Amino acid sequence: MTPILEGLDGVQKMSKSLNNAIGINEPPRMYGKLMSISDQLMWSYWLLSPTFASPSRRHESEVAAGNMHPMATKKLLARTIARRFPRRSRRIAADENWAACSSKKKPPKTSKKSPSLTPT
């Protein structure tokens, strides 16, 4: 049996109706939402998200040993997931938008409501 992917809250299943889902057609928000998950939840996203990639055990052990910052691994996760959906130019814009918003406390640019990574 496949485990259920927790939503952004890290508790309940990912669902649009629970308002904790990540839309696949909202690139600026997708990257930011992925960056907002907890460091512990990040490993579940690596294993259960539709990226067809799994985290390198080396990454996990490097983070645990304090040799790699969790944010670097989380950025890699966000880019890997974003790569599966929108076009490259939109991924780059999403990355830049997230960086601008997080460092300057600006509101993110939004897109139209879109489908999520998982069905509700």
Number of helices: 5
Strand and helix order: HHHHH
Question: What separation lies between the terminal Cα atoms?
Answer: 18 Å
User: What shape does the CA trace take?
Assistant: globular
Describe the biggest sheet? none
Mean residue pLDDT: 76
What proportion strand? under 5%
Give the strand tally: 0
Give the radius of gyration: 14 Å
Low-confidence stretches: none
Class derived from helix and strand content: mainly alpha
Helix amount: 40-55%
Question: Any chance you could write out the topology, listing elements then pairs?
Answer:
Blueprint: H1 27-36, H2 39-48, H3 57-65, H4 70-83, H5 88-104
Helix pairs in contact: 1-4, 1-5, 2-4
Description:
With 120 residues, the chain is mainly α. Helix content is 50%, strand content 0%. α1 (27-36) runs antiparallel to α4, α1 (27-36) packs across α5 (88-104) and α2 packs parallel to α4 (70-83). The longest helix has 17 residues, at 88-104. It starts with 26 loop residues before the first helix and ends in a 16-residue tail after the last helix.
Describe the structure using short key phrases.
120 residues; mainly alpha
Describe what is shown at a glance:
The chain has 120 residues and is mainly α. The protein is built from 5 helices and no strands.
